[in-house]
Amino acid sequence: MYSDVFIRDFAELGKRVSDMLNNSSDSYVLRESMEMSESENNFFTFKMQREALLAISQYMLNENALKGWLSRYSLSVTLKSSYIGVIAAGNIPAVCFHDILSVLASGYKCEVKLSRRDSHLIPGIFSILADINTFWSDRVVFKERISSSTCALIAAGSDYTMKLIGSEFKNIPTLLRGTKSSVAVLSGDEDDKETDSLCDDIFLYFGMGCRSISRILVPENYKFERLIDSSKRYTSLSENRDFNASYRYQKALMTMTGERFIDAGFFILSEECDFPPPLAVVGYQYYKNENQIVEYLRSIEERIQIIEWSGREGCVDPGMSQKPSPDEYADGIDTLSFILRNAKNN
User: Where are the beta strands (DSSP E) in the chain?
Assistant: First the structure.
């Protein structure tokens, strides 16, 4: 069956990528892709790319996770010759991988328009897949423009870009994702390990992912010292000229306008910033009780990607926001069901 081949080959892809990143097998193709990405996008440091690829290989391409994911779909997946289009964002490394994975899981071919900010990593990954099984070599094609003959489209980017894409592709089914960010709810009793995990979820990918924690809800009288101390593991972010320029600009702006903020040395904690906040700014908000938490989350729910809240149903635990499994869909919309339901061509 097609699904069996899909699971076998993508699980093997996960193993190979993990081995390459851990230097236990030849990694020329992947290393070259990562080096080219870093040279063209100063946010795609080797460390950030490695973290993204490890998360994909260990959590998204885990064989048991793939089996569990596809077992939930009663529709029989068959091989198809037509294409689903994917227009990729470029905010974090390989951000469109799950969309391509979902298209291929559905049996369709995938036509991909890559972001200029991330044009090397995905082709490198899929060249490894084609080496595992040449069947996949023509199932993913990379184009400068999505063809009008595609039978459905998945796209991610800014709200403005999504409006333009929605207008251009109004005659086919579209799944469009605009700007979102994520929130963490803290009890104030977090230990060092939990705080370290929270900082990973804030600062990985320079905080530019939709699953990056950009606002924290904290109890009154919360002490920020532990969080700031833990964040020092990421002071190297200040070596990025754009990140550091934003930090300095936002600090100067808040100082001039009299806005309250906490200077954490390389980033700013702000009680008055927008959601999502600017680069190098993390928002915070105090709460008195759980009702205030729920009320606030409800007020911004259309802009929230995930909520990190330890032990809460439907929420993500600290340290897991950047490690989605294949059944965790962006915007809570089942990508695979969207494809199977809307794409009518064979």
Answer: 83-87, 109-113, 140-142, 153-156, 174-177, 181-185, 213-219, 261-263, 268-270, 281-287, 304-308
